[in-house]
Design brief:
- By secondary structure, this protein is α+β, with helices and mostly antiparallel strands.
- The chain is built from two helices and three strands, in the order βββαα.
- It has one domain.
- A three-stranded antiparallel beta sheet has the order 1-2-3, with no helix packed on it.
Length: about 60
């Protein structure tokens, strides 16, 4: 599901655990957390940086386009 600069790319536990991806050029982690917290209670949070191989692939794809 695409919502602005946020992608929901996984859901577990009957929707209680969501995996989100966002474009850090347009939105900070703090802004995303504030938006989510305004809608639901956040009980736990983990932030993962993208794998460097994925970043390099995206850069090369963008240059080809």
């Amino acid at each position: 599901m695409r919502q602005g600069t946020v992608d929901v790319f996984g859901s577990e536990g009957a929707g209680l655990r969501q995996r989100l991806s966002f474009d850090a050029e347009h939105l900070t982690a703090a802004q995303l957390l504030a938006a989510v917290s305004a809608r639901v209670t956040v009980r736990d949070l983990s932030i993962e940086e993208p794998d460097i191989d994925d970043v390099v692939r995206r850069v090369y794809r963008a240059r080809r386009a």
